[in-house]
Amino acid sequence: MTLWHLLAAVALIGPVFSSLQTAHSLNTGLGGYAASALSGVLLGFVFSAILWLTTKRVFLRFTTSSATMQTLMAVLIFSTDILWITMAVWSAECSCPALLHAI
Question: pLDDT tens digit string along 29-70?
C-alpha cells in the first residue's frame, strides 16, 4: 500500500464521516443518518475515483523524467490531492444539510 492508496481511501472515507457528523449535529432520525451516509458514500466514490485516475495519469506521464522532476511532481500531486480531499469533505458538509432539509 502506498501513499496514493491511503489518499484515495481518505478521499472515500472523509465525506462519509463529514456527512454523518453533519446529520448528528442536525439531530436527524435514523432516515437522516441513512440518507447522509448514502450521499457521503456517493460523494466519496466520485472524489476518490477522480483523484485516483488523475494521479495515475499524471504519474504515467512523468515516469521517464529525471528523478528531480519525479520528486517535484510527487510533491505537487500530493499537495493537490490534499486540497482535493479537503474539497471532498467540505462538499459533503455543505450538501448534507440541504439534502436533509429537502427530505
Answer: 888 899 999 999 999 999 999 999 998 888 888 878 888 888
Contact 69, 39 (CB under 8 A): no
> Do 83 and 68 touch, CB atoms closer than 8 A?
no
Cα–chain center distance at 19: 12
For the full predicted model, state whether its pTM sits above 0.90: no
Taking each helix axis as running N to C, give the angle between helix 3-25 and helix 30-61, from 0 to 180 degrees, rounded to the nearest 10: 160
Looking at residue 65, what DSSP letter applies?
S
Query: In whole angstroms, what is the distance from residue 39 CA to residue 70 CA?
Result: 36
The CA-to-CA distance between both ends of the chain, in Å, stands at 39
CA angle 72, 64, 73 (to 5 degrees): 15
Q: Cα 33–41–102 angle (5° rounding)?
A: 50
